[in-house]
Each structure stands twice: as C-alpha cells, then as structure tokens.
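chain and backbone:
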Amino acid sequence: MFVVYDEEGKVVTARTSPNLLRIKVLPTSPDSKVRFTTSSGRDFFDLDFTDISIVTSPISMKFPTTDTEMLHTRDCGSRAAAWISAELEKPGVRLGFWPAGFGRDILKARSREIGVFKICNNITGAYSNLSSFLLLNCSSVDDLVGRLGAGSTVGTDNFRGNILVSGAQPYAEDRWEKLRIGTASFRIVKPCVRCMLVTIDPKTLVKDPNMEPLRTLKTYRQLTKPEERNIEGDSPVMGAYMGLINPGDIRVGDQVYALATEPKVKMFRLFQYF
C-alpha cells in the first residue's frame, strides 16, 4: 500500500489533489518492483523496493481527517518524490509505502463510532479511511444514475469501490450483515458516507458545477438512525465498508452469498474487484 504525504507529514488525498485519480500502480518483474503510471500510460516511474527498504526508516504521518491517529510509512526516496510531485503539480510531496510490522489503532480517533458501528482495529486498511474493502452494489449506482437523468456521466468509478457486485436489488446492501465471496468471507462494518470527492469526474477531473451526484444522494440516502446521524450528519450513503473474517480467493464472476437482516440468504455475482 502506498501513500502521498506533504512536507508537514500530512496525508495528501484526491480531495485536494484530484490528479491522484489518474495514478495507477502496476506489478512488474521481478516481484521487488512496481510501476507507477498515469491513466494515459505515457509517463511512468519504476520503484525497486530493494533500493530503499534497507536505507530508510519508518516515519509517522497525520491522517487527513483527524489529528488523533498517526500513520506509519517508509519513504520511497527522492526519485519517487520528484515523479509524484510533478504528476500532482504539487511541489514537495513525497511517496511512502506501508512498512511491515506496523498496525493501526483507530479506537481513539473513532471513539464516538464504537458501539454505533462495528468498528475495531482488525478491520482497518493501511491508508484507507477505515477498511481495505469497499463494497459497491452496481444496482444502487444504476438507480442513482437513473435519478440524475440523461447526460449524466456518473458511474461506479465516482465511488471508488474495490469490490463490485451485480444482480442484487438496489440498496439491498443496507440489510447485509455478512458476505461470502469465493472462499473468503466478510462482514459489513459501516455504511460508506460520501463527500465532495464523488462530484469530481474521474476521467476529466472536472468538478460538477451542480455538486452532483452528491446533491441528489442527499435527498434520499441519508442515515436514519439518530445515533448514526449524530456522528455523520447529513452526509449521504453509497456502498459499505467491510472487514475480512476469513481470508480466501475471490474472482470476477464468483457467486456472492449475503446474510441479511431478513431471514433469507440472497445470491448474486461478483462483477469486479480491484
């Protein structure tokens, strides 16, 4: 897992640097290398872990949404910093990767959410807001697009899920508690509330002047439980964070089994994952 951070040790996100949405990380050979490239593929940078892992020590950074959680990273060196600074048009930022042997402690930063949502340390991702697994129901996104009307370019990419499922009813994920995909199993830990980042077109990086789809989502997809709204306010929901229960293999086309709050098991298919 990689992260961009500034000279003050604060994590840089696509909220303030939309060009991050164009960056891709690809595996190369040998396994000790990865390639950073843009969506156009015209520019790239190859990072060799063996060049930096021995000579750099882990440092601490501040998470962008709170001052009470510190994250660890291992700096990727001056060449990586120069490349990412140029691509983001943001001088002075640096590239880091998750150091082995470290974990996250989110309990202090998210103390208000404990007991309201299923928050615990073992569901966290390295540099994500909460967990490594963000579920999107394609039918829910399709329903939203229908409400936006003709001409809308909104799609699943606006919501940056890494596990996408198809074949379920719109917003059925609101009732899901656990999922089995392939040989892996997950549990839903929290609805994913959305911010202004979804208003940025992931292809053009242009922000929608009417704040769509956020504005439409707010008309019908807000949390309803008072204890949840007390934490998240009027931020609308699309998708759900998941925690891993049992590790396993998942593949596009896998059947997905959901244990819902209703007394039945629903079955549909894995559409895409990243």
In short: The helical segments are 78-88, 138-148, 214-218, 226-232. The chain has a mean pLDDT of 87. The longest strand covers residues 184-193. The CA atoms of residues 35 and 228 lie 41 Å apart.
